[in-house]
Amino acid sequence: MSLQKLTAELYKLFDSQEYEQSLKLLAPIKIELIKHNLLIPLPSNTLTKDQVNDLKIAQRILEIGALASLLTNNYQSFENYFAQLRPFYATAQIYSKQEKLNTDATKIISLYLLYLLSQGLISKFHIELETIYNSSHYDTEKDKYLSFPINLERNLMEGNYIKIWKLLKEEKNLPCKEYTHFIDTLINALRFEISKSLEKTYDSIPISNCKNLLYFPQEQSDSVFETILKEQFEVDNWKIEGGVIYFNRNESNGDQAEASSTVFNALNYAEQIESII
Amino acid sequence: MKDVADTSDNLSQTETLVKEIEQSFTLLAKAAHNFDNRYISKVFRDLGPLRRKLNKNSEVLPILINKIFPQDYTNKQYLLEAINATESQPSESLDNEALETSLLPEVQLYVHLLVQVYLLDHNELSRLDTLNGHIVYLLKSFNRRSLDFIQGKIWFYISRTKELLNDLYSIRPELLASLRTATLRHDTETTAFIITLLLRNYLLSHDVTQALNLVEKTEFPEQAGNGLVARYYYYLARIHAIQLDYSSANECVIAAIRKAPQTQLATGFIQSATKLSILIELLMGDIPELKVFKKQPGNFEPYFYVTKAVKLGDLKLFGEVLKKYEEFFKRDDNFTLVSRLRQNVIKTGIRIISLSYSKISLKDICIKLHLDSEELTEYIVSKAIRDGVIEASINHQKGFMQSKELLDVYSTKLPQSEFDQRIKFCLSLHNDSVKSMRYPSDNDTKPETEKNLDKEDEMDLLKAIEEGDLDDFMD
């Protein structure tokens, strides 16, 4: 099949939400793209207008790949597609002529940011952010897609968990439907964050209050709550007794001065001084 | 009459300059024959003043090139073209010895370097770019250790040209290729130069991932000049800061400031390093001292106001400062770092409260910090405790925060390890100085007079090395 036909079919499948099918179709398409030297934008293939147009189609194909793998919960392949899309977003020739044509770029970038956030890869998140902020293509503060993960991260770092909870809970706050895929992982990440803070902060806390703080429904029975805690969060040092959670803090005594290390250091200095003299 | 005097004055000046450059050729030749790169350092020490003189006098280079290179020398053509001069017959044919000197690769490259600098100073970028193409080709044809110093510098100007032309991508393959060659040849000077150039290139295009990969996969040569080490550390600090690894970033930026030459030429570098250092210190939750802002000339005002807002824990003031100086921070490429400080403003606020009260209700904290609700306060305080900003605990039922009693630090390992660190620093300083000492070789059988001469030479060279290779900081 020729590239045009394949592409047309891909568009059709994607529009009718047959994501699994479109993913299968993408493998032969990518091979065709490589044959036509369109998979990677290079200075050599962005010279004429036709070439740029072809590359835009290639970009759209990859974007479909990214969205489809996301919608089928295939995060690994989402990451791969994003890596392939990155050079497209960085190449100015493609970008400058498509302002109105395709606004999926910011959407996909913001989904990727969200993905990093839900995986707890904060430093990667910031590296990505550095590129976005300094690229002239995006209006980071005003773009509805981009501002969402940025706000989320800011609130997460501040400890403003209420705001995050509100943002995540109300679907109308979400700029597009793909975001719903991250909601569950994000809520889990949020609860994990809170539980880590809790165990450092309190000596003990009643279970009902704890449920409140972690945004679990109050009706949930204590035993179910306990198993969820044990399964999802690393709460080995939480002890539940009579409706109260106690946090075992085994304060390490490693800070205390140890005789052996002191002696070792002193001997080391003596050796050095001897060599100087 | 006056005109005539002027021209003759100019003429004599040109002659002395040509002489001066020719003198440096003898040094270069010495370096080539003795395999002693210190002679080249000496030549570079004079490059700064020479550069300024050449800048004013446009006749020197054509005369020089016409004089020293023979007619059939292929590079002569494009060198002259680059500086817009015509070929002229040399008045006297060169004798054999002089010819040998002028065709040494060291001398050839040095002349190329002079032309590069001249074009850069006159802002003839497109011409310089064409010339650079030839130079890269020429560089590849040589493999001599005595060229290392000159090569590094030439790469610096090539990369700088591309940067000024706003063409960051096309130079990368060349740089990477020459990095590989330089590493294989154990050419530390060029390696160090190119690593810093690549890092600069990546950071200018905000390609932090690439920069990070480069840092991980290469080893920065230890023996590189101080100026280069300072630069390398500065870039490292930037990368670490973006990755939120503030403590490593802080170490690097301090090393960068310390290693930077303390002269007029490096002011710009020290300024931007100081700005970065202020931000990193703030991000770590410390407040920089007031004298940091006043020590050097330069516009630290925005950074001062940011620090003030963080110190007061005042979110409103912080927002205003951020808005007012946004352009300024963006120009310094620090905007993302500054906007990360927002969370620190709140944290310092909490810290101040925890230091002043041993016990305080969450409601009061909420009011003091202008937060939305008590519930939110609880989350934020508990986050602060988890991040180690304060030592405290919360009583949920009664709704108060209680600060922990301060531990006696002298009962812990802390003083010991601090002490250990300092001793290790002193010892390594001692060891390094021992290693860098030079001893006269034992089998020295030269007559006394020659020895004295050598000594003078040696002193000169040492001075050159001490003053170092500062010229690049001019840009």
TrEMBL record, chain A:
Pfam families: CSN8_PSD8_EIF3K
Alphabetical UniProt keywords: Proteasome
Superkingdom, natural source: Eukaryota
TM regions (residue ranges): none
Signal peptide positions on this chain: none
Annotated InterPro entries: 26S_Psome_Rpn12, CSN8_PSD8_EIF3K, PCI_dom
Keyword Metal-binding attached: no
Family under the similarity heading: Belongs to the proteasome subunit S14 family.
Protein name per the record: PCI domain-containing protein
TrEMBL record, chain B:
One Gene Ontology biological process: regulation of protein catabolic process
Cellular-component GO terms for this entry: proteasome regulatory particle, lid subcomplex
Organism: Suhomyces tanzawaensis NRRL Y-17324
Family affiliation: Belongs to the proteasome subunit S3 family.
Keywords recorded for this protein, A-Z: Proteasome
GO molecular function terms attached to this record: enzyme regulator activity
Residue intervals of the PCI domain: 230-408
Name of the protein in question: PCI-domain-containing protein
UniProt-annotated stretches for the region Disordered: 437-458
Pfam families given in the database record: PCI, Rpn3_C, TPR_PSMD3_N
Positions with biased composition (Basic and acidic residues): 441-458
InterPro entries: CSN3, PCI_dom, PSMD3_C, TPR-like_helical_dom_sf, TPR_PSMD3_N, WH_DNA-bd_sf
